[in-house]
Amino acid sequence: MDAQRHGRLRFRPRFGAVEIPEPRLARFAFGDTRLAWLWLVVRVYVGWQWVAAAQEKLGSSAWVGAHAGAALTGFVKGAVAQAHGPYAAVQGWYASFLQSVVLPHAVGWSYFVTIGELTVGIALIAGLFTGIAASFGAFMNVNYLLAGAVSTNPLLFLLELLLVLAWRTAGWIGLDVALLPALGVPWRPGRLLRPGQPAAAAR
Q1: Numbers of helices and strands, H then E, in the chain
Q2: Ramachandran angles phi, psi of 91, nearest 5°
Q3: What are the beta bridge partners of residue 188?
């Protein structure tokens, strides 16, 4: 029998790509605006965690100010110390990266980390480029985990991953509701990039 008549997928890689339909549950969870309120709660929680972390750094001269880089230097040295022994918490390649790239430029990285945390936090709370902001947040969490710092990083990483998956609706109650139709996405330009044409919903 014809497999397509029974709703099955026929893969023909030699004759082009096959588009696999999105499961109904995933479409509802990550693409339905009725759940925008849920993603708003997640967004604000994660965003506030980043803002709070940045505020703490902004108030410390060891991160931003006269002694900038001192706190990060201590953190990096602590991470490198965990790269030794049979049950090392930090992998050798990452310890080498910290020693050769981060430690010599601790002052610059100190400002970069602080500003990065604050920017991600504000963007998430405001629903501004939510998917991109969540991606950068997840990237920072991964780096903290690689450096041996657990704390809330696994939870934040998981929530940010969900926000990335829900990028179409995660910022619906936020600035993205206006920005996404106006700017569009790389594969579908918005109305600002297509003068005279109505904007299509990003998919």
Answers
A1: 9, 2
A2: -70, 150
A3: 185
d(CA 147, CA 130): 26
User: What is the domain count for the chain?
Assistant: 1
Check if the beta carbon of residue 182 is closer than 8 Å to that of residue 199: yes
Residue 95 in contact with residue 83, Cβ under 8 Å? Answer: yes
Q: Residue 93: inside a domain, yes or no? A: yes
Domain span at residue 117?
A: 51-167
CA angle 61, 64, 68 (to 5 degrees): 75
What are 24-73's pLDDT values in tens digits? 999 999 999 999 999 999 999 999 999 999 999 999 999 999 999 999 99
Torsion of CA 17, 23, 24, 29, to 10 degrees: -110
Write out 119-159 in H/E/C secondary structure.
Answer: HHHHHHHHCCCHHHHHHHHHHHHHHHHHCCCCCCHHHHHHH
The model's pTM is: 0.84
In the prediction, which pLDDT does 180 show? 85
Chain segment 117-151, per-residue pLDDT in tens:
999 999 999 999 999 999 999 999 999 999 999 99
Inside any domain, residue 31: no
Residues 6+ apart with CB under 8 A from 103: 73, 76, 77
